[in-house]
Amino acid sequence: MQMLDFLRRxxxxxxxxxxxxAYELTVPDEIDSAGGRLRLRATRPASYGGPRTxxxxxxxxxxxxxPQGLMPTVDGHHLRRASWHAQIGDEGATSAERLDIDRxxxxxxxxxxxxxxxxxxxxxxxxxxxxxxxxxxxxxxxxLECYPQDKGD
Amino acid sequence: xxxxxxxxxxxxxxxxISTSGVYKLISRGRLPAIRRSERGLRVPRVTLDAxxxxxxxxxxxxxxxVVSTATLEESRAAFERETGLSxxxxxSRWKADRFEDSAxxxxxAIRALSLLLHERGEQQHTENRHGDQRERRTAA
Lengths: 153, 140
Known about the structure:
The structure holds two protein chains of two kinds.
Chain A: H1 3-20, E1 24-25, E2 30-32, E3 37-44, E4 53-63, E5 73-74, E6 77-88, E7 96-102, E8 111-114, E9 124-125, H2 131-146
Antiparallel strand pairs in A: 1-3, 2-3, 3-4, 4-6, 5-6, 6-7, 7-8, 8-9
Chain B: E1 5-6, H1 8-15, H2 19-27, E2 34-37, E3 40-44, H3 45-55, E4 66-67, H4 72-83, H5 87-95, H6 103-139
Antiparallel strand pairs in B: 1-3, 2-3
Helix pairs in contact in B: 1-2, 4-6, 5-6
């Protein structure tokens, strides 16, 4: 599959996952097929007493399977670097939950998260590498941090 | 105010289906549910709203993607204007952990890597072309 087709398909996959959680794309996706890069942003307005949340996804892919075997192959391509950022409520690094995939970091932190409530220099090892799992994780963070006591419990 | 989270029973009643039907929706990935406590799964009300919109055929409005037509030189120039560094210099400093690990810098790191990968693709094409020219001269 050519890189442009792959990136379009990847974007469509993100759209499907984001829609499950009621996020809406408000700006066009950015696709740079020559560099294997995709960026998309989606927002969910404040509702039911919860915060407005913005998801910012940025990824760089390469054709072929990962020669180091670090990342799974998706439709004949593998992920080289990515940042999945959820800005929950107020602006600022501590109000964000972010997952980074970055081979320039030590092996144990190649996939790491910057947890909600912590500054940028805080990194924790992470195992998530699929949009579905990460969005569920973000929703759980929102639930526990923004609705500590909910009468539905 | 309505609770932001619904129990499985509440969702079943709302949708007019059985609780096993709700569990099926969850297990098939069509309705997200989270675990807030040991008391079981909860469905965020916003995700139920989104599910009902999809049932009504009201899909998301997607603005068309912007596919870059910038040349490598244009993209590099834009990067250097924004950062004051070439992609190679940025990548080198990023790997040395000399930048704050902010979301903005991470996005720049992703762009820098993308430009470098693009460059390597161009270089490979150039090398192949030069290799072809050497073969033609030899043959002549």
